[in-house]
Design brief:
Length: 396
């Protein structure tokens, strides 16, 4: 979908630190976390919540009191009578949220909108459905987080299977996957230099209420130190496979936010008047059970709508739950691996599902601004064989 008047004001997108599941954010309701982080992010940036007239919640893991959706967030933040939809598109949720907001702005329905994207994979809900026909009336159950990782009901295959299928089809070796994983970790370390100077530009700490006082999470938690020797020592997840736990992401908890506004409003809100124009979004699917392939057609669709070529891109960020994703993208598009994910990626810092893409878009915008502007792409896979993409241009 092509856009001409939808912008992310520079500095008006942010992310919390991501914490590996069952870590410091495990007992924090993701909606409560989003309210607190979003409130402080808006206050620090001088944007009153009541000036935002379209709110959108991106969330894939139900939480207590989630029935009321975005209204439970906007009202608690003092946004008056403004609300909006709850969007869930698995790991492409952030791209779907951005597309919805950009559409609202493009149509002139709203000039200032926000996407609040949050998820907690820790302590995912156990869903129970009554079944009078089962023995003893036993309910049908599903673990909302764990079970989908193990089984796509349309293919009978797991998430890990999709990576192995793609690696096998492309002929990727264990060594190639390890090289990408190590590269992404080393890129992540650049964002930690000078006391996390890069991350502090866009990362908002999480307040953790406790029985006595409160704690704070100011940096990513659970990132595992990665070395070539350590990766080589790991066994593949599947006995005859090439994918190890070192070459795939880990579940996480976290939240993120992105403001989308008209050009005139974005220049008012953006730091130094700078904006990231949303040129296009795109969604697509690959063959069933080949999830790592899906970001390529999604990206090509978004690029076609934006009227640009892969060769025009200055920076690419990806949601890459497997190192296989980036290998396939680079092979199919010719885009260099080393020019992707300059501040690391979800392969390294984890994947809280919904907000992962919003963090990648935020890092994309900051990487483009750091180089003086340019054209960028975010693309990432989702749910078995689908993907979403966003093309942006930073003007300085």
């Amino acid at each position: 979908m092509k856009f001409s008047d939808a912008h992310i004001p520079f500095g008006m997108s942010w992310t919390s630190p991501f914490a590996k599941w069952q870590g410091p954010l495990a007992e924090l309701n993701s909606l409560d976390m989003a309210v607190d982080v979003t409130g402080r992010a808006l206050a620090d940036r001088g944007l009153p919540p009541e000036e935002i007239t379209e709110w959108t919640l991106g969330c894939t893991v139900p939480q207590q009191h989630a029935f009321y959706g975005v209204t439970g967030i906007s009202r608690r933040l003092g946004a008056g009578d403004h609300g909006g939809p709850w969007i869930a598109r698995a790991c492409a949720t952030s791209a779907a949220v951005i597309e919805h907001l950009a559409t609202q702005v493009e149509l002139g329905a709203h000039s200032t909108t926000i996407g609040v994207v949050t998820d907690r994979t820790s302590n995912g809900p156990l869903m129970l459905w009554s079944s009078a026909q089962a023995a003893g009336g036993a309910p049908v159950s599903e673990h909302w987080v764990l079970d989908p990782m193990k089984l796509d009901p349309t293919t009978g295959q797991s998430m890990n299977d999709t990576a192995e299928n793609t690696a096998r089809d492309a002929g990727y070796t264990r060594e190639q996957l390890d090289e990408v994983a190590l590269m992404r970790y080393e890129q992540y370390l650049t964002a930690l230099a000078d006391d996390r100077a890069v991350q502090r530009e866009y990362m908002v700490p999480v307040r953790i209420p406790r029985r006595r006082g409160e704690g704070w999470l100011e940096a990513d938690h659970g990132v595992f130190p990665t070395t070539a020797e350590g990766l080589a020592a790991l066994r593949p997840v599947a006995p005859d496979g090439v994918v190890t736990f070192g070459a795939q992401t880990h579940p996480a908890d976290g939240c993120a936010g992105v403001v989308v506004a008209s050009a005139a409003r974005a220049r008012e809100l953006g730091r130094g008047g700078v904006t990231a124009q949303i040129l296009a979004t795109g969604f697509s699917r690959a063959a069933p059970a080949y999830m790592p392939k899906a970001p390529v057609p999604a990206a090509l669709r978004a690029l076609a709508d934006a009227g640009v070529e892969v060769a025009d891109l200055d920076v690419v960020t990806t949601h890459n739950p497997f190192a296989v994703n980036d290998l396939w993208f680079s092979e199919q598009t010719g885009y260099p691996l080393e020019r992707m994910n300059p501040y690391g990626s979800s392969l390294v810092y984890g994947h809280p599902q919904g907000p992962t893409g919003a963090r990648a878009v935020t890092e994309l915008v900051h990487a483009l601004h750091a180089r003086g502007g340019g054209l960028g792409l975010f693309t990432g896979c989702a749910a078995g064989d689908s993907a979403g993409a966003v093309v942006v241009r930073v003007d300085g």
